[in-house]
Amino acid sequence: MSATVQSRRPRRRAYRVLAAAASLATVGALAAALPASAGADHTGGGKKRTVDVQLLSFNDFHGNLQPPAGSSGQVTEKQPDGTEKKIDAGGVEYLATSLRTARKGNPYSVTAAAGDLIGASPLLSGLFHDEPTVEAMNKLGLDVTSVGNHEFDEGAKELARMQNGGCHPKDGCFEKGKGGKKGGKGKKFEGADYPYLAANVTDEKTGKPILKPYWVWKHKGVKIGFIGVTLEGTPDIVSADGVKGLKFHDEIETVNKYAKILDKQGVKSIVTLIHEGGVPKSQTYNYDCDSPGAGDGISGPITDIAKGITPKVDALVTGHTHNAYVCTIPDPAGNPRMVTSASSFGKLYTDTTLTYDRRTKDIVRTSVKSANRVVSREQAKAPDMTSLISRWDKLAAPVANKAVGYISADIPGRGAGVPESPLGDLISDAQLAHAKSLDPEADLALMNPGGIRSDIVYKASGSEGDGVVTYGEAFTVQPFSNTVNLVDLTGAQLVTGLKQQVSGSNQASPKILQVSEGLTYTLDMTKTGADRVVADSIKLNGKAIDPAATYRVAMNAFLAGGGDGFAELGKGTKPVVGADDLKAFNDYLTANSSADKPIAPPKADRITIVK
């Protein structure tokens, strides 16, 4: 462990908070405890008026302790001659090395994240409710993070456990304790050394934030406040059980509120960690986001949010969209302000220099510099992370290494980069097959694209052999434990549901459903809104959809609840609840493939795209 990390360890319980105890009174007490001399001008005593503070940041790690497979584990780099190069990146062994190397020679260094560190994780972390990832974040020296939508996948109580520690209420302790026993008497999970910030998430009954709204980093008279928020629309993309009893508030109003509180307490330098993001014009991580003008290279929700957040905030670290960008978006006063995002899965980190003025206690905005750095796999692995992975891998191995199917080539999913992916088709077919085992009259299946978390690659990830799909690999693709539900929808409802892919809350950033074999239609991207779905092109097994007819439709519980902006799909009747989606997928792979007859990648030709 590096000296930097060791110096942080004694602080761990100093900012541990109970999930529902972060009231303004608590915040005020924290501020009152700050030294009166902090941030004072010491130029007469030999100190420079300004000092450079290194802010290292990342986002959307999603429990990817091991290097992500396939295209999910690559970043695209623009070369000097204009060509593009794919680089293998990510894995916590390399992320830890990158961050520790970056900190060298920087006495003022703070590391922050913008949410979704856990949730939708590969089996190595997800099987253990993401305890391994929290442990890894402790070891690599994370100082603070905001919550993201996936921090709520298992509900507020489980998020509180991630912060405060303790064994899982159902599964108990995963590692043996001193007595050599597992379960409730095993080794206790210690929780996060770093604070989770949730300024815009309050308890419906008390009206108070469920976790700390902000945290102040202090080092040798320098202090920087961090405000953490997630997207206001979190309830739309998380299961109802995960957000039960919680209220999610406007991002701009919340940040501005706490920025005022920090300012009154003498904290003039402020960074917002916000789990909301944008869509860059280029997928190369090192493109110029400020060409031709400031912030011209990005669009999406974060642009309006950045323009509305008070000038008291000096920088925004963002996430959620899994994109990479370093942009200068002017604040409401017209001053330049850095807005950054470091892709996902630990493939990049952002290195930002904040010049702190000891006299004003504020950041000299014109001197802020920032760049995304690749977490290369050509550097040395961090030994403590290798040890951590090995320890948890031994516990996971009996489950993870079981073969569930065989494939003849890579089957791209999340990394396909197109509206309809081969893996999306395969998963939809698997869900329809499972639905037919519940009701032979099942007609079709729909799958939300955000539920497909990775690709399935032909090359062996371990000792299983090429073309073998293991339980662990399948889990990485579908880690949510959603049930496969079967409901009745009218043809008119089905058409409306398909139109909601590109309208309403999905108009700015379409969510194209993956469809089972037999359902076909045309998506005309030259049009706008709901008109992009060509209604008279929608057919099932070659026959036009009858608006008055009833169709038996399979989908996961998230979609059946109207998630992802598909309110019409949430109106289904005569529900039947099947097994979880991972079991449906594994059963389909097992039943339809063998070493001699592997599954070939579907053609992904069910949706005709007009550009």
Automatic annotation (TrEMBL):
Which Pfam families does its entry note? 5_nucleotid_C, Metallophos
Q: Can you give the residue ranges of the 5'-Nucleotidase C-terminal domain?
A: 411-567
Query: GO MF annotations for this entry?
Result: 5'-nucleotidase activity; nucleotide binding; UDP-sugar diphosphatase activity
Keywords attached to this Swiss-Prot or TrEMBL record, sorted alphabetically, are: Hydrolase, Nucleotide-binding, Signal
Q: What is this protein called?
A: Bifunctional metallophosphatase/5'-nucleotidase
Listed Gene3D superfamilies: 3.60.21.10, 5'-Nucleotidase, C-terminal domain (3.90.780.10)
Boundaries of every Calcineurin-like phosphoesterase domain copy = 58-323
Record family assignment: Belongs to the 5'-nucleotidase family.
Cellular component (GO) terms are:
outer membrane-bounded periplasmic space
Comp. bias intervals (Basic and acidic residues): 78-88
State the signal peptide span: 1-31
> What is the protein's species of origin?
Streptomyces kanamyceticus
Q: Does the keyword Hydrolase apply?
A: yes
Instruction: Tell me the segments the record calls region Disordered.
Output: 62-88
